[in-house]
Amino acid sequence: MGQKYYVFLIVTIIILNLETECSMSVNGDNDKEALLGLKASLDSSSTALNNWSGDDICKWVGVKQCLRGRVSKLVLENMNLSGTLDSTNLNQLDQIRVLSFKQNSISGQIPNLSGLINLKSVYFSYNNFSGEFPASLVTLHRLKTIVLSNNQLSGDIPVTVVNIKRLYSLYLDNNRFTGGVPPLNQTGLKLLNLSNNQLSGEIPATPVLAKFNATSFSGNVGLCGDAINIECGLASSPAGSPENPPVGKSHRHRRTRNIIIASSIGGFLLLCVFITLVVICFNKKSKKKSVEEGIKVAAAAEGGGSGGSGGATGSGKNGGSRFSPEGDDGGIGKLVFFGGGDSPEMSYSLEDLLKASAETLGRGTVGSTYKAVMESGFIVTVKRLKDARYPRVEEFRRHVDVIGRLRHQNLVPLRAYFQAKEERLLVYDYFPNGSLFSLIHGSRTSAGGKPLHWTSCLKIAEDLATGLLYIHQNPSLTHGNLKSSNVLLGSDFESCITDCGLMSFKNPDFPEESSASSLFYRAPECRDPRKPLTQQADVYSFGVLLLELLTGKTPFQDLVLEHGSDIPKWVKSVREEETESGDEPTSSGNEASEEKLTALLNIAMACISLAPENRPVMKEVLRMIRETRAEGAHVSSNSSDHSPGRWSDTVQSLPRDEHLSI
User: Fold this and answer.
1) What is the CATH number of the domain that holds 341?
2) b vs e for 424-448, b when ≥16 Cβ sit within 10 Å of the residue's Cβ?
């Protein structure tokens, strides 16, 4: 009897295994059918997904991970895909954990995704999706990350979003959402961006929402509340709506009582209060300049005239320089906007821009940079070029047109420009998360900093190499001034290169004004301002930037000439020093991390070769970095696999509104 039982048990196990294998095979075929359906609807030209053939779907481009023969991670980013998404095909991929279509041109509504019961992260940003917030996402209880930025989505953000219990990051910025802010109170919510929509009403005072500052809600004119320091009784949002009830009687009674109390105060005390208010208002006005006033002060400080500083025409009552926004035809000039499906709605004029409150972010080789906050709450970065007459008008327009057409997830987009006889302004997106310099060095102004964790080094290196390769695809285009302060951190903490091509606007006849550290980023053959900038020089700057990541040190000396072949020894000694002090984020004794760091160091050494012809091109650099990330580690080469929550603690402690510039 016992033998028969064991034989029966073994036969049963064999049958179950066969059924499981058969089920896996059938489901794998279903995944293949679903992927081919997606290809037909999104890649009609069969160029981006031309390797989607054969039986092993796990080797198809964009399929980043499989579990038991099923697709668990599908990442199709920046592949020029267009068309619409079909819910039938998508919902067959029910084992997917990560789904990304960002940086494409997909249109139509986001389909029902309720069949993706294992989905954890969805990245649909930088497309042309329209319609309402996909309600099916609320039903996915494993969902943690929702990124729908830079689309054309409209309607209310449903209150049911609060039911996504595991929500970690929610990015809905640069859309057309209306209504109120949902009372989000998930304790795990760490990243939120609802900026540049049409939201209105009071921001709910939940403990979780109270942790986010004004940058998470900026660009929504109708919003009010403590998070953005706007009293709801003064906000211009629709009265009587559930999200924004009218000012009640208690508020009016409180205001009346305050008036009575104030009026009963003696004349002397009233006079003191009046004088105090005058002083406070005067101080506020002196601290908050408009963009026009900031340009006026800068022009006066630079001595006026366009020969070297640019921008001063006419004179005010006090004899100071005055900004005059006159176009080349003598009339009032206009901003020239660059189009593109990823652009936020550009509904402001030159006058709106000049009235915006301005904060000086920095002054550098080619100009001064301002943070401009318009009356609507929309924030941009404005760069005023020093020399408004170099290069000549037509050459300037041609070059700025090339720069303005650049669109890539690792580049800061140029949105608009203005030029007149004595002024040239460039308008960029504002990045509140600061720069790579601030990530490495914090608030330090010295050369000291902390080396980053090796995973962060590789992630940043890949982001930068990807962006620089995109620039170099135009044979005549170079960045010319790559350094850590010209790398800004995006909403997903991706590294984005800014100020591309601006060195072409620096008059070579004027003396070099760069700091020593800025000069040492530059390849030796291009340190003479009269020498042309080259793509090989960009590769050199990239190599120096890698050394900065690895050591936490700015190039305060010429690394190549000072250290030469001893650079690897110097880098390792710096990291060992940090390890001994307890500050080094890399686990000591970890062979895998040592291999990664050594490989990245070797890439840096190849990039800083003294002979330009011996330096690798950026395509080869990117290949080496991706191979380094992939070998021996389960780390994807795609940006979606590095949500901010998986970065080192250095990123999480970054000041939210720090923004450095050249």
Assistant:
1) 3.30.200.20
2) bbbbbbbbbbbbbbbbbbbeeeebe
Q: Which are the contacts of 485, defined by CB distance < 8 A and separation ≥ 6?
A: 362, 435, 436, 437, 660, 661, 662
517 within 8 A of 447, measured Cβ to Cβ:
yes
So what's the pLDDT on residue 254? 46
Q: Which two tokens stand for residue 630?
A: 């992939």
**If you search the block for the tokens 């953005």, which residue do you land on?**
228
**Model confidence pLDDT, tens digit, residues 158-192:** 999 999 999 988 999 999 999 999 999 998 898 89
CATH code for position 83? 3.80.10.10
Q: For residue 354, what are the domain limits?
A: 287-430
Q: Which domain-ending residue is among 197, 223, 254? A: 197
- Retrieve residue 71's tokens: 């697709």
Whether 292 and 155 share a structural domain: no
Question: pTM here?
Answer: 0.53
Position 621: which residue type?
A: V
Provide the 8-state DSSP code for 318: T
The CA distance from 303 to 318, in Å, is: 15
Q: Which domain CATH number covers 637? A: 1.10.510.10
Distances (CA, A) of 134 to 65, 124, 502, 643: 25, 11, 41, 21
* 255-265 pLDDT, tens digit each: 545 555 555 55
- All residue ranges of the chain with pLDDT < 70 are 1-28, 46, 234-333, 339-347, 443-450, 510-517, 556-565, 577-591, 631-662
Using CA atoms, how far residue 621 sits from 62, 322, 540, 658, in Å, is 21, 48, 11, 30
Q: Are residues 33 and 169 in the same domain?
A: yes
Does residue 414 sit in the same domain as residue 519?
no
Element spanning 27, H or E: helix 2-42
